[in-house]
Amino acid sequence: FFLQSKHLQFVSGVHSTSYWCSVMAFDFLKTSIILILIFIWFPIFQIESYSGINLGAIALLLFLSCWTSLQISYVSSLLFSTTLVAFSSLVSFYILGGLLCMIVYYLLSVDFTNIADTLHYVFSVHPTYALGIGLSNIYVNEELRRICTQSDELVIVCEENEIRYT
């Protein structure tokens, strides 16, 4: 992949910075179309936690996850000699790696909170993990807010149990 791109850059006669910036902008434009389609699905399914006030946070989370994924893909493409191997490796890294990190975090957070908290910071560099945890945190926060503000009694119970939400 890298060698083909280097060849295209050489043949086009464009300065390397201009070439790579235009490639990155075009890739981000293509990815933004998919992001917009994904973002449209949240209000369509009418999940309370993923609508209203939380749509801005979700848009930012999707945008940053996309931006990070593109950068990791560019850098890691230098490790592979063929496009097929690079694609399959990166898909495995993003999907399986992110899912595995989330499973490990949630399993350890039940009994081993100190280890889980440490791993959370380590796993946060993985874009799929960060996206999944971010969406999960938005959902949990909104549900806690909904439950704790239903009645005066629940407000007291949430305060006594030090349940925090934003």
What would you note in describing this structure?
81% of the residues lie in helices and 0% in strands. It is an all-alpha fold. Helix 2 (16-45) packs antiparallel against helix 3 (55-76) and helix 4 (83-111) runs parallel beside helix 6 (127-148). The mean pLDDT is 84.
State the helix count: 7
Oligomeric state of the chains present here: single chain
Derived structural class: mainly alpha
Overall shape: it is: elongated
Percentage beta strand: under 5%
Bin the helical content. Answer: over 70%
The whole-number mean of residue pLDDT values reads 84
User: Strand count, sense and closure of the main sheet?
Assistant: none
Give the CA-CA distance, first to last residue: 45 Å
Comma- or semicolon-separated keywords:
mainly alpha, 166 residues, 7 helices
Write the layout of secondary structure elements.
Blueprint: H1 2-12, H2 16-45, H3 55-76, H4 83-111, H5 113-123, H6 127-148, H7 152-160
Helix pairs in contact: 2-3, 3-6, 4-5, 4-6
